[in-house]
Each structure stands twice: as structure tokens, then as C-alpha cells.
Backbone:
């Protein structure tokens, strides 16, 4: 039996929270009041019912329970909970949605009690999965991760990716709370109030499910307690709720999604709430003071390759992971069922406890990596460059969570060859360039790959590294240094006519072109633009001043790629920039045939230069 | 009882097909032989067992059954089937994976018997859904759609999006064939040979499931017959198969994914096959000669807006759909649960039979649209611009299927305001620009939106239209004409100092800036670049020659956006191009505050111009 006094206090707190939700959204003039009201009891019970264990004065405590609002639009509820916990004043709460307030329309990490930015639906469960994975397999701590889910967002495929992978990893420390309030944005959801539909689907994937009335504190508290007793599988609490609960004229009504009450409506609503004790504060239980084992970074040996052997940059990536892990003991490696192609498998063999198979589910892989990143890990995640497009929305959201995920896309460009266009990453540079403060690296040989993987591990932020399928020869010696934002001038004279800028596979084509041109007495400056973002403006500018034209060559479409990065860098300098890039519909064929076909090969470079001079 | 003679012939055909698979992959030196061998009986029975109804001399017959290889890597099987049907010679088959052959590594529509390009896993079921939706609700024809699925790809969330939506629309004309061969690329799948795991999960979503031995012709044929008797729900035939079936040293073995046999291995394998009758051909049943009702395009009335009223471009999109449908009776409209925000709801209200709710599942929406497009429809599909990033992989694949989907992304840019960054489309222009031959349009007022929606409907290809949340004033009169690849010069004199190029919301800022500058006696050329791709090089060039600098202004990140499109267009002309774009981490706030904060507002434009002159 749960004692009456406890329930009474929770009821009083829920009233206070409803008041905060309604008042703050009305003050903001927008916001999702009704979606917040439906989950009020679920979250009030969690935080203030003795379930959640969190040191409110130390958000960074490694054994804090974690709470993610996957239904990010219920942010008024989230903020109101922390106001009720005494961590926001009513005045601060009233800044919600205003410019420069940390209380944004959808949660971002600008507010310290937000574990990860949400608001694009269907991402929270994957993030939670990453945090639960961390607790169970990495930090080995007993904290639990809770994810508040909306019913409407259950139609996102990413949810089912997370559901299957969480079950696969037997994460009984992951508890989903599904707020089935029946109504989506534009009307009823696919399953309405049919809780059994959710139960059937979710349990079929191996989750424990608990069905409850989401407005009964007794049922809610019992459900959490029951969830604690489940072993070897994650738990979904499926709660029947009423959208707009607590305000008669909002309850279960269509047309109120994402709308705030006007002042007259607010007055009416508050009347219904009756007396609210604004001095009331809820208590949150403290976590056990447990910490993960300390890991001491070790020195690692340098890069070593036989100078006359060819090796693919994707293989060098795998080698690098194995080599540098002792130096970066927070590293974790994930791969989406292609580890034998991306060479993440080398790491898996060396450090099986730090590798997680994510199966063919790229969205969840990125979400999981975000969760791991937010728990202090350095996730290196890999798939074919083409298939990262699958998780663009998750990548995009990653930038609002201050994350430091390292993305490695193999099989870039038409040089993939026979497998054909579906397997060719041709949009990946453009995609990763759009992310604010991102780093985009494109090494051309094993040495530069190894060095840049190291730089990626050191760098505090999101990094994309593009690797190539084909074996390529070494360009650099093992003591060459590479920096984020750097470049290498590989050919340089006082009478260079034209500058050729390439990276990755096309750098090898440019080197061959340069040999041929040299023989013909044509001097060309050649730049390895291995850091596409940030870009080495100084070196580019110098080349622009000292030569008559620039030719960029990339195994990527022209739009948003290396060529446009160069054009942006030199936009205020008078120099023509010609871009050789993938412009024809690619197809199957030998890599060399395709490089020629797309006019990004040695031959194309020579031809273009001869045209220009 | 199925007669012995039929089974005998199917067995002989399966042998022939295995021979083709093995010989063609060895000839190619690569390709997925083992993944083809596992599904050989499943597909042989379908095509040549009297199940499939298809006029092999008229691939365009509207009542042909449709077959999609979602596991596109089994293309050797697909091509071998059509060789066995007499539509490819052995010689042609041996061109597989070679440059310029229509038989690409993964299927593309270069080969006429391919319904849609596949190879990025987990997309075929959505495409099939679109075709089945077309059969049931639009063309009202009895054809069936079959989708061959791999077990490994079932981990993609997009599969579960398709599974739930197909059940929602009660598509009993959609039959999935799940080839459970236990092995993925790098090892065992999540569920291995546990067929019950798939049955439980798929049936929980309301599908009929049939479990069979995927190498028994009797069981397979019975399964198809049973599938025909199911009513009101889609059917999944879940088949236990052996990867590499038919060749002892390949069967159920790891390490053979995506590998061809060498010549010695091939000889060994063919020995096992025993006598193969290469003159044997399989017969495919003909479909009933049924055609959909003919629709005659009607003239529609022109655009009409009150000149002094403000109206958002998103609303104008909805208006345009309703207005032009009679002229384009093949139009279909889909939306991902935000039709009240994108204004697709206006069309839904006017033509409910042509609107399909796709719920919050953007990947499946794009796949479904591709299926509809391949069946001759003109799909207009909408969600927030930000959420199209969710389906980038599907969009990317769309270009290899010669599709003509129209994508409409609302809520673009920081001008979304209070809802915050998660809801702001800031990467959409870059994303859609990367698609080869794509069209990217960004209208600024209701008139241009209406006109461009019309152009999009006419255009044969993929088109993206970016709309804005805010109400904006009218810029154009109803008789103004807009073309794909066009632009409008809104301010022009013989002594313009600088050219300002904007589109959408920033055009309004630029217009205000122009007013202010004019008062200060500063003449500026102002261009509405409503067609970002293709781009109006002629007008830009003229401006570049006639003015001293160009300033681009966009409510989008700098990378891959309008600014870089302009830079690419003018890369060989000596003029500085300054790009005002979203460069700071966006946040919640009033639209005007955010435009100022990102320095893309009227104030920022005026400031920049004053700096320059």
C-alpha cells in the first residue's frame, strides 16, 4: 500500500505543475500545454514519488538517474517539474520560449537539467538506450534511464529500431513511459486509446509492458515499482491519459495541440485547478554515490605502414581505432552491421567489450551514440557514407546537444565501382557540412587517416571522416602531422599556373595528373584539402593569389561538396574556381571507368588544365 | 495438391536460375551469389508457378503484378529470373555489373523489369505499399504487389513504418516474402533462424503471417495461394532458407556475403547443380486486361489573392493543391501528421479520396510516394522542412528510380521562431540540391507559391518547394509568370552598386532594406532567386557584371544553401560574393529577433551594404 500522505503531496504537486504549465505557456503565447497536462501525473510520480534518484545539485553525478523527454514538445511540463523541485523560480519559468532564455520551445541542453535536445520525434528512446548501455556495460552503474514517449511518435521507425536493440542488449535499466493521450497534432493517432495495440507490438519485441491509468498515482507508483523487479528486458509503462487533463474544456479535445490559452481562458482554467500552493516544493531522492572506475590514458605507439604497400583508408581507420584506444579509454565503437566493410571489426576483435553491434538501423545507432556521448564517452560510429543519410535528422539534432560523436563513412564516391549508385556516398560531405561547428575530414592515405582519427578523438565536437573502399598508395611519411583545419601543399613552385585542390581518392588522380603535366612542362600547385571543414583559408588564399585559376576535384556531387567549400572560402577573392565533380547519374562499372565517366579522373584533370592554359 | 509435373519444371528452372546466378557473378568478379541462392525457390515459384501475372511484353500494363526486390543485392537472382523468362540472353546476363550494362550491381530502372531502384535496405516495402495503395484506392485494379525482403534489413525502422501503415490501409494486395537465411553481411542476424520472432513481431502489427520452408515448392505455392485468401490485411510469407542454398560449400556459411566464386570454385559448384537445361524457359501468367478509368484534365481558374492581405506561403501551397488538382488528375497528396501546419489539410478536405495520412513516419512517406510515382501518379508530400532530413536516404534513392515526387517542406529557417531549433529547417536546401537533376524552389509570397506549385506538377522529376511559417505580404500580381530556372529582378537601375540576392522570407527583409537604402540614395539591385536549382545564371551574370559585389541572404545555413548555389553559378566571374546566412546556433525567440541574431534581417543587409560602399 502506498500511503495517503504521499499521494496527497503528489496531488498537490501535480496541481502546482499544472498551474506552471498553463501560466508559462500563456505567458509565452505558444507552447504545448495539453501534451504536458496529459503526462503530469506520470512525471510528478517519477520525480517526486521516491522513484527517480538524482542529485539536483550535481547534474553531472555519474550515478544520477536519467530522464529524457522524447516528446520534447512537453517541455512546459519538464520545466515545471524543475520549478517544483526548486531549481527554477516562477520568474525564470516565465521566460520560456523567449529569446536568450535557456527554456526553449523544445528542450535543448541550454537548460542544465535537459539530458539531450529533443523535439524531432522518435529520437529519445535511442538516446536513452545509449545511456542505459553506458550504465550496464561501460560505467557499470545502477542508475536507470527513463524516457517519456508520446503515442503519436510511436509511428516513427526509429522507435522500433530502439525497441529491438534495447531488447537485444537486455537493458532492464531502461524504462519507457508511453503517454497514450490519443491525440496527435492533427487528430487521432493510428491506434487512439487502444492500449492493447501498443502492448501487443512492444511486447512482441521482448519488452515487459505494464498497462496503467496514467492519472492514478497509485497505479503509476506501482508500475514503477513493478518495473524495478523486471530482469533481463526493458520495460514500457503504457499509460492511458487524457490530453489536456485537468482543464475540462481542453480534455480530450481536438484542435488544442501546441496552443496556449489566452488570458481569459487561463483564468477559467486556473479556477478549475482550485487552490495551488506555490510555495510547495517536491523532493527528489539522491542516488547512491557510486562512480565508474577511473581509466588512465596510456601512451600509444606511432603509425607504421610499409611505404610500398597499398592500403585503403577504411582499413587504416580500423587500425587507428585499435592503436589509439589506450590513449582514449572513453572510446566506444558502434557499427551498423557492416563492420567487415568499414573495418570497425578490427576494433571489435581487439576490444570486444567496447564494441556494440547496432545492426542495420542507422538512426538508432546515431541516437545511441548521442546518449553515450552525453555520458562522457567518445563514440566512433561507422557505416557506408551513403547510409548516414538515413540518420540525417538524428545527426542534425546532435548539434543541439553539444555532442561529440565521430562519424566514419566508408565507400564514398563513384569509386565504389561495381556495386552501383545505391552504395555510393555522394552527398555525405554536403550533409555533414550543414551541421554548425562540425568538422569534415577526408584523408587520402593510411597515414593521414590514422592521424586524423587521432585528431577526431581529441576534438570536442562532431566530426565526420570520409573513407574510401579502394586500396591506395601511401602519400605521406609516418611523421607527417595533420590538423583539423589544415591542408598540405603537395606540389609547389614559383611559376605554378593553376591550383588543383583535391582530397581522398581524387588526390591520387591529381597526383598522377601532376606527373603527366610536369613532363609536359606545365607547373601546377597541388593541395590536399583533407580538412574540408574547417577549411584552410590561408593556404587557399595564397594559392588564389599566386596562380591564375583553381580546379577542385571531388568524388561527390558538386552541390555542397569540396568545391563549394573552396568557393565559399575564396568568395571575396578574384579567381575563377572550376569544379570537377559527380554530375552524371552514376552507375555500375570499374572505379577507373566511373572516375573517367564523371570527369574527375587524372585524364579529366589534365584535360581541364590544358583547356585553361 | 500441386501436380508433380509443375514442381518438376520449377525444379529445373531453379537449377537454371542457380546456374545463371553463379555464372554471372563469377563473370562479374563480384556480386551477391549466396543471397540470391537463398531466395531462388521463393521467386521461381512466384514467377513461374502461375502466381505472378505480368505481361512480359508490356511492362507498362497497369494491371501487371509488381515485384520489388527490397533486398536489392539479390539482383543476380532478379536478372536470372528474367533471363529464364526469355527477356535476357545469357550473353546480356554476363554484362552484369559492367560499365553501361543495364544490369547494375544493385537494381536500377536502367533495366526495364525493375520497378524501382533498391540497394539501400529497408525501402522496398514502402515502395510496394505505394503500389498497393495505388491498386486499391486510386487505379482500383486487382493487381498484387510482391516485395522480397531480407531478414537482416528487418532491423531498419522504415520496415516497421511500412508494416504499420500497410496494415492501417488494410492492403491485402500487398504480399511480403521474407527470406530468412539467417546470415547478414558480417555474421548472424539479430534473430537468426528464429522464424517465430519475425512472426510474433509482424503479426502484432496486424499482418497475416505464413511460415514455410523456403526451399519447398509445395509449401511456397501453397503459401501464395493462402495469401490470396486473406482479406483486409497484408500478408508476410516468412520463409526459412539457407544462404548459398544448392552449393554445399556455400550453404549456411559465414564469409560469403557479397562474394563471387572464382572460376575453380564455380566449376565445383556447377558440378553440384548437375545437368542444367539452358534452353528451358519459364512462363509467366498474363494479367487481366483491366485499365484504370481515364481522367481528363480540366482547365482551372487563376490565382487570386487580396493584394493588401498577408498570407503564408504554406497556406498558399494548400490553396494551390486544391486549385490545380482538376488540371492534374494524377495528383495524390500525402502528409506526415502535420497537415494542419503544412496546409495539405485544405486538399484533404476538398479531395479526401486523393489524400493519404502517412502519420509521423517520413521515411515510409517518401517510399510510398516513390511507389505511387512509379505507377504514374504525381505525389505531393509534405512535412516540416526539418523532418525531410529523416528521409534523406529515401530521397537519395528516389533519383535512381526516375521518380517525380514533389516534396514540400514548411517551417523553414529560424523564422519559425519560438518552437526552437529542432523545428527549423536549416539544411533542406543543401540536402535537396545534392540530388542530381533535382529542382529546388523557394517562393516568397502566395502568388509565386501558387505558380510554382503548378510548375512542380508539370515538371517531370523531383522537385522541392520550401515554404515559410509566417504570414507574409504579397510581392507579385496574379498575372506574374514564374519558371523553373527563373528569377525576378525586383529593383534595378543603371547605377546599382551592389546586388542583393534573396528568396523566401529573406526577400521580404531585402525589400525593406532596399526601401531604407533608397532613401539614403544607395541603389541596389534586388533579385528574387525563387529557383535555387536550376539557377538563373544569365540574370546573375548580368548583375555580377553590372554591380560591384553580391550579397546573398538566406534563412538556411551557409553550407550548400542559396549562397553557395550563387557562388557556383558565378565561379568563373570576378565578383566578390558575401553570404549572409545562419551561422550561430539558433534558439527560441521571436522570428524578428532571430533574423537579427543570425544577421539575415533587414538591419543586417543594410549594415553589410554600408560596410561595402
Residues:
Amino acid at each position: 500500500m502506498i500511503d495517503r500522505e504521499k499521494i496527497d503531496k503528489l496531488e498537490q504537486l501535480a496541481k502546482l505543475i499544472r498551474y506552471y504549465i498553463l501560466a508559462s505557456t500563456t505567458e509565452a503565447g505558444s507552447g504545448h500545454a495539453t501534451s504536458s497536462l496529459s503526462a503530469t501525473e506520470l512525471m510528478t510520480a517519477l520525480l517526486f514519488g521516491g522513484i527517480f534518484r538524482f542529485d539536483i545539485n550535481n547534474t553531472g553525478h555519474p550515478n544520477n538517474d536519467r530522464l529524457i523527454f522524447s516528446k520534447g514538445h512537453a517541455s512546459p511540463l519538464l520545466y515545471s517539474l524543475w520549478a517544483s523541485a526548486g531549481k527554477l523560480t516562477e520568474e525564470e519559468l516565465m521566460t520560456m520560449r523567449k529569446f536568450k532564455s535557456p527554456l526553449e520551445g523544445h528542450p535543448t541542453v541550454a537548460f542544465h537539467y535537459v539530458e539531450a535536445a529533443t523535439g524531432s520525434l522518435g529520437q529519445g528512446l535511442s538516446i536513452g538506450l545509449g545511456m542505459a548501455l553506458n550504465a550496464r556495460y561501460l560505467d557499470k552503474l545502477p542508475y536507470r534511464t527513463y524516457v517519456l514517449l508520446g503515442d503519436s511518435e510511436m509511428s516513427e521507425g526509429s522507435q522500433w529500431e530502439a525497441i529491438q536493440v534495447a531488447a537485444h542488449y537486455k537493458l532492464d535499466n531502461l524504462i519507457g513511459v508511453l503517454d497514450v493521450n490519443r491525440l496527435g497534432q492533427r487528430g487521432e493517432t493510428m491506434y487512439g486509446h487502444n492500449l492493447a495495440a501498443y502492448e501487443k507490438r512492444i511486447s512482441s519485441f521482448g519488452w515487459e509492458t505494464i498497462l496503467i491509468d496514467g492519472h492514478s498515482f497509485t497505479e503509476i507508483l506501482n508500475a514503477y515499482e513493478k518495473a524495478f523487479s523486471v530482469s533481463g528486458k526493458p520495460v514500457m509503462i503504457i499509460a492511458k491519459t487524457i490530453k489536456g487533463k485537468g482543464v475540462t474544456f481542453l480534455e480530450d479535445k481536438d484542435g488544442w495541440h501546441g496552443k496556449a490559452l489566452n488570458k481569459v481562458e487561463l483564468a477559467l482554467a486556473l479556477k478549475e485547478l482550485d487552490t495551488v500552493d506555490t510555495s510547495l516544493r517536491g523532493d527528489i531522492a539522491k542516488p547512491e554515490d557510486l562512480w565508474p572506475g577511473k581509466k588512465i590514458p596510456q601512451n600509444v605507439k606511432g603509425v607504421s605502414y610499409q611505404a610500398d604497400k597499398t592500403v585503403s583508408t577504411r582499413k587504416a581507420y580500423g587500425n587507428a581505432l585499435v592503436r589509439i584506444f589506450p590513449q582514449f579509454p572513453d572510446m566506444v565503437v558502434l557499427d551498423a552491421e557492416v563492420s567487415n566493410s568499414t573495418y570497425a571489426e578490427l576494433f571489435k576483435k581487439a576490444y570486444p567489450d567496447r564494441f556494440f553491434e547496432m545492426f542495420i538501423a542507422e538512426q538508432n545507432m546515431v541516437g545511441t551514440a548521442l546518449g553515450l556521448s552525453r555520458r562522457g564517452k567518445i563514440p566512433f560510429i561507422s557505416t557506408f557514407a551513403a547510409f548516414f543519410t538515413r540518420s540525417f535528422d538524428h545527426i542534425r539534432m546532435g548539434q543541439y546537444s553539444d555532442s561529440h560523436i565521430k562519424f566514419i563513412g566508408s565507400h564514398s564516391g563513384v569509386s565504389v565501382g561495381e556495386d552501383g549508385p545505391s552504395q555510393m556516398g555522394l552527398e555525405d560531405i554536403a550533409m555533414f557540412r550543414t551541421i554548425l561547428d562540425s568538422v569534415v575530414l577526408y584523408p587520402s592515405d593510411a597515414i593521414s587517416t590514422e592521424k586524423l582519427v587521432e585528431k577526431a578523438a581529441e576534438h570536442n565536437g562532431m566530426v565526420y571522416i570520409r573513407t574510401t573502399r579502394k586500396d591506395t598508395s601511401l602519400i605521406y611519411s609516418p611523421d607527417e602531422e595533420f590538423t583539423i583545419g589544415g591542408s598540405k601543399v603537395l606540389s609547389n613552385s614559383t611559376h605554378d599556373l593553376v591550383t588543383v585542390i583535391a582530397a581522398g581518392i581524387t588526390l591520387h588522380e591529381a597526383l598522377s595528373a601532376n606527373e603527366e603535366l610536369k613532363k609536359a612542362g606545365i607547373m601546377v600547385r597541388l593541395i590536399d584539402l583533407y580538412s574540408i571543414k574547417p577549411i584552410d583559408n590561408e593556404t587557399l588564399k595564397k594559392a588564389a593569389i599566386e596562380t591564375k585559376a583553381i580546379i577542385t576535384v571531388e568524388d561527390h556531387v558538386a552541390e555542397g561538396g569540396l568545391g563549394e567549400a573552396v568557393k565559399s572560402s575564396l568568395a571575396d577573392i578574384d579567381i575563377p574556381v572550376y569544379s570537377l565533380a559527380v554530375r552524371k547519374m552514376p552507375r555500375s562499372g570499374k572505379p577507373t571507368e566511373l572516375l573517367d565517366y564523371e570527369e574527375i579522373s587524372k585524364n579529366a584533370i589534365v584535360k581541364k588544365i590544358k583547356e585553361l592554359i
User: Anything to note?
Assistant: Chain B touches chain A through 110 residues (CB under 8 Å). Chain B has a mean pLDDT of 97. The two ends of chain B are 88 Å apart (CA to CA). The CA atoms of residues 137 and 353 of chain B lie 8 Å apart.
